[in-house]
Amino acid sequence: MTAGGWKVDYTLWITIVFLALTGALWLVRRRAHRAGAVEATDPVCGVSFERREAEATEPTPNGETYFCSAQCARTFRDRSGQEAAR
Ligand SMILES: [Zn+2]
Fold first, then answer.
1. Element (H or E) spanning 67, and its range?
2. Overall pTM > 0.90
3. Distance in angstroms (rounded) separating the CA atoms of residues 58 and 68
């Protein structure tokens, strides 16, 4: 084996290890992303989106309600306020 040949092998192994690490990291990140992607539906306009993308949240007896916009959250608050007054 020549010095030149060793150099090529060495670089190749570094590349393989680097690619393996990058791939593993990518898989872990992708899995974490999926775990964090919890769907929520805006009860006002019916739009579905990821919870972490919610513009506004409102606590309800059934847990947190997620809204696509502050406007929808306001509409929801107004509606529940009217129902409570009835
Ligand atoms: Zn909405």
1. strand 63-67
2. no
3. 12
Beta bridge partners of 67: 56
Q: Are 30 and 36 in contact (CB under 8 A)?
A: no
Q: How many domains does the chain have?
A: 2
Identify whether residues 80 and 46 lie together within a single domain: yes
Please tell me whether residue 40 adopts helix, strand or coil conformation: strand
Residue 13 sits in the same domain as residue 43: no
The tens digit of pLDDT for each residue in 2-12 reads 555 667 788 99
Instruction: Give me the helices (H) in the chain, please.
Output: 3-36, 70-85
Query: How far, in Å, from the CA of 5 to the mean position of ligand 1?
Result: 63
Q: Which domain holds residue 23?
A: 2-35
Cα 38 to ligand 1 centroid, rounded to whole Å: 17
